[in-house]
Design brief:
The complex is a heterodimer of chains A (248) and B (320). Chain A is an all-alpha fold. Chain A has one domain. In chain A, 77% of the residues lie in helices and 0% in strands. The longest helix of chain A is centred in the middle third of the chain and has 31 residues. Chain A is globular. Chain B contains eleven helices and 14 strands. In chain B, the strands form three sheets. In chain B, strands 6-7-8-3-9-10 form a six-stranded mixed β-sheet, sandwiched between helices. In chain B, strands 2-1-4-5 form a four-stranded antiparallel β-sheet. Chain B is elongated and about 75 Å long. The chains are: A mainly alpha (248), B alpha/beta (320). Chains A and B meet through helix 1 and helix 5 of A and helix 2, strand 6 and helix 3 of B.
């Protein structure tokens, strides 16, 4: 049984464990919000669909839904095993710690991208069906997947550093990404939100894109990769020094 | 019976460092709470019992031996190499943790199979089936662990611990939650595995479990190694200590007068409707009391040892 076998085992296990947790329901409920808002907008006979839809995508999906869902999944995939104490069954095996982190990341990122991507696609299909060319959908999914990966990597690392990963993650997202990065242009370089926009609008074949980007795709990919890989390395390093807790 | 003087930093003998599993001046503290206090021992083939009351530091010690917890000072050696931060040691070690955590959504078979695959075994299906058979869990293997009884979860944990046929087995309270029949089955299994040359270290706070299974014992009290060595020597130490008994008889005063002249009796006290007796040791007093009551024509209603808790035995050992 080679490396792929072990990785596949870990991925299947993680998918079954993390996706069965109650928190996932919260993520699914949150994913319904953009769709509901789009339905209400249509029923009210909404005007200026282009501006409204771009606002929905930027402010509701990318700024709010994506980090929320990513943090929920990202703190569940590994944090859930730590909370339950089952992590010990993975640690007593001759498996490199980075492989465990990689499997957890993959499941968290894919689950997040699917949930957020589906929510965005359905919401846009309702509010502005004409904008949904195949190229635009691919661009949006690429952006969402990229953001999902980075946010999940941060959440996995946080769940190995603190027992309050979800709370700290939410505070970081809504203070830093939501407020500070909007106030100062310099902080855009350090904003996952901007990396997502950079990927999305550059790949979008219908230019000018619906969403404004402040970073070129190269910086969005490079800086995003630095953050994601950095967080994954921190997580693998923490896991290799992980100590089972028996005292409060 | 070797008592290890505390705080000693004397050279560690080669039979300790050369043992398949060794702790050398191992200590672990959490803040200013000392959980394990300068413990040195070596464990060889056979069954060794790690005996101690709850909270003595047994789990902390086992986790350090399993490389899941770094000692604050000292060193753990697994087959001569330092444990910790090297996942390769888990080909040689099997651990069954005390904490009752499980993947409730997996069946017993899926859990054993997962363990076999993560252990990178060449034939995981065969290994999983063999492990489940060994712990007598084949019949229930296709039900979800979430619906298992505590004893069944214990046995599945044990199956996972021995799925890769490790030469060293660390079992933390393995008999918790098992019924007497399962317990007996498990003891027979562990004895057989020890007979094959394996190193088996199991912890327990129940004297009888250790008595039935272990040839060697480590006794831990309050983070310290109170005694280490052959079980019988330690048992003798435990029984040869002064014991107190409470007696209820038809005539306590007459019985007291007869007992106090006996050499095996150290003190007699008439107290709250009974008779408290302090005897020099367990065996001679229990033999003597029947003879004395018969000779005095006193009926013996009740004879009860008053200090037979494990804690009292341990605190006596620590005082040694």
């Amino acid at each position: 049984m080679g490396r792929d076998g072990v990785l596949r085992q870990l991925i299947v296990l993680t998918a079954r464990q993390a996706l069965g947790r109650r928190r996932v329901l919260v993520a699914l409920l949150a994913a319904c919000v953009p769709v509901l808002v789009a339905v209400i907008y249509r029923l009210a006979g909404g005007q200026d669909a282009q501006a409204w839809t771009s606002n929905l995508l930027d402010n509701v999906v990318i700024t709010t839904l994506l980090p929320l869902v990513a943090l929920i999944f990202g703190t569940s995939v590994l944090g859930g095993e730590i909370e339950d104490g089952t992590i010990v069954y993975l640690l007593v095996r001759p498996v490199a710690r980075w492989q465990i982190v990689l499997a957890k990341l993959a499941v968290g990122a894919v689950a997040t991208a699917v949930v957020v991507g589906a929510s965005a696609a359905i919401a846009v299909a309702i509010s502005l069906p004409s904008s949904l060319g195949p190229g635009t959908v691919v661009a949006a999914l690429a952006g969402v997947t990229w953001g999902a990966l980075i946010y999940v990597a941060i959440a996995v690392a946080l769940s190995l550093v603190t027992g309050h990963a979800l709370i700290i993650g939410l505070v970081y997202v809504y203070i830093w990404e939501g407020v500070v990065a909007g106030l100062f242009t310099g902080t855009r370089l350090l904003s996952v939100h901007q990396y997502v926009l950079g990927v999305m609008s550059t790949l979008d074949p219908s230019q000018p894109s619906m969403l404004p980007a402040h970073l070129p795709i190269s910086s969005s990919v490079e800086l995003g990769a630095v953050v994601a890989v950095g967080a994954a390395v921190v997580a693998a390093w923490r896991l290799s020094r992980f100590e089972v807790s028996e005292r409060p | 019976m070797t008592a290890h003087p505390l705080w000693s930093q004397a050279p560690v003998p080669a039979e300790v460092t050369g043992a398949p599993l060794a702790a050398v001046h191992v200590a672990r503290w959490y803040g200013n709470v000392v959980a394990v206090n300068d413990i040195t021992f070596g464990v060889g083939a056979g069954v060794t019992g790690l005996l101690g009351p709850n909270g003595a530091g047994k789990s902390t010690l086992l986790h350090m031996l399993a490389g899941l917890l770094a000692p604050s000072s000292g060193q753990v050696l697994v087959e001569g190499r330092p444990a910790g931060r090297d996942p390769a040691i888990y080909r040689r070690i099997g651990l069954s943790p005390e904490r009752d955590a499980s993947y409730g959504f997996l069946t017993g078979r899926e859990f054993a199979l997962l363990s076999a695959r993560l252990a990178r075994l060449p034939a995981p299906d065969t290994a999983a089936r063999r492990a489940l058979e060994m712990v007598d869990m084949e019949a229930a293997a296709d039900r979800q662990i979430g619906g298992y009884s505590k004893g069944m979860r214990q046995r599945v944990k044990l199956a996972a611990a021995l799925v890769h046929d490790p030469p060293i087995l660390l079992l933390d309270e393995p008999f918790n939650g098992m019924d007497p029949r399962q317990r007996l089955h498990m003891m027979t299994l562990l004895q057989r595995m020890a007979g094959e040359g394996r190193v088996i270290l199991f912890s327990s706070h129940i004297l009888e479990e250790v008595e039935r299974l272990a040839q060697q014992v480590l006794v831990m009290v309050a983070g310290r190694l109170a005694a280490a060595g052959d079980y019988r020597a330690i048992r003798r130490l435990m029984t040869d200590r002064p014991h107190t008994f409470t007696l209820h008889t038809s005539d306590d005063r007459a019985m007291a007068a007869r007992l106090v002249v006996e050499e095996a009796v150290l003190a007699v006290q008439l107290a709250n409707g009974g008779l408290d007796v302090r005897a020099a040791d367990y065996g001679s007093f229990t033999r003597l009391v029947a003879r004395v009551s018969a000779a005095a024509g006193v009926s013996l209603y009740e004879l009860r040892p008053t200090d037979e808790t494990l804690e009292s035995v341990f605190s006596y050992l620590v005082g040694q």
